[in-house]
TrEMBL record:
This protein's name: DNA binding domain, excisionase family
InterPro entries according to UniProt: DNA-bd_dom_put_sf, HTH_17, SinI_DNA-bd
Coiled coil: none
Start and end residues of each Helix-turn-helix domain: 29-77
Source organism of the structure: Mycobacteroides abscessus
Molecular-function GO terms, alphabetical: DNA binding
Superkingdom to which the source organism belongs: Bacteria
Ranges for region Disordered: 1-25
Length: 82
């Protein structure tokens, strides 16, 4: 085996062992209207959930947004309550 082949093989082994470094995708944010559409409920119902503390929102200035994970959590909570 030539020196070049050995280096190539060592490099291939190193690449196979190294973990992949991926940048996590930022959370998807929905407007209250989009979140209501996704949940198939009214915006008013979402605002009631927010007021009662059952829906956590993200505020940017005047914009009220809901993370995708929060929508999933609300769905899971409704599933266990049913």
């Amino acid at each position: 085996m030539s020196e070049n082949d050995m280096v190539t093989e060592q490099l291939a082994d190193t690449v196979d062992e190294s973990p992949l470094h991926t940048v996590p995708e930022p959370p998807r944010l929905y407007t209250m209207e989009e979140a209501a559409d996704r949940l198939r409920v009214s915006r008013e119902y979402l605002y009631r959930l927010r007021k009662s503390g059952d829906l956590i929102v993200v505020k940017f200035g005047r914009r009220v947004l809901v993370e995708s994970a929060e929508i999933d959590r609300v769905i899971a909570a409704a599933r266990t309550a049913a």
